[in-house]
Design brief:
The protein is of the alpha+beta class. The protein is built from four helices and seven strands, in the order αββββαββααβ.
């Protein structure tokens, strides 16, 4: 995919598979909803979640955002980088509101209150991307035999 196609794809509504590194070196893989801080990918999570514990010990991560129901539709973006834990309540709120708007729709006063309550026990994680890999099977010349 081009840079513009990648940007458009990650701004669509998808789940993100997030891999962090557990204490024993094995991958810890979870499905996440994600949002943005400005144009930077981010998510929020409980302060004491396993992914937060892992990132505090070793900030390396990989993310996979993918879509498509059959071979000809498969698209994906892998992001390899670093998770930066942010505890500033305003940034946590910003990420929470971004996630809420993306997956729940309009952020009304009730939604803002939900985000505020949830944010009291959460941190935000900004994904600083070092490497991007993408694919789009709809661009393949002939996928009929796959």
């Amino acid at each position: 995919m081009t840079r513009e196609e990648i940007d458009e794809f990650i701004h669509e509504i998808h789940n993100m598979s997030l891999a962090t590194i557990a204490a024993d070196g094995r991958p810890h893989l979870v499905a996440m909803w994600y949002g943005f801080i400005g144009n930077e990918l981010a998510f929020w999570t409980y302060r004491k979640s396993q992914k937060a514990v892992n990132l505090r010990r070793d900030p390396r991560l990989s993310c996979l955002i993918e879509g498509g129901l059959n071979y000809q539709q498969l698209k994906g973006v892998e992001l390899v980088g670093t998770g930066v834990i942010l505890e500033d309540p305003e940034i946590v709120r910003e990420v929470g509101e971004s996630v809420y708007r993306r997956y729940m729709g309009v952020l009304d006063d009730n939604g803002k209150e939900v985000v505020k309550r949830m944010g009291q026990k959460r941190v935000a994680v900004r994904i600083d991307v070092d490497h991007v890999v993408s694919w789009d099977h709809s661009k393949l010349a002939d996928t009929s035999s796959a």
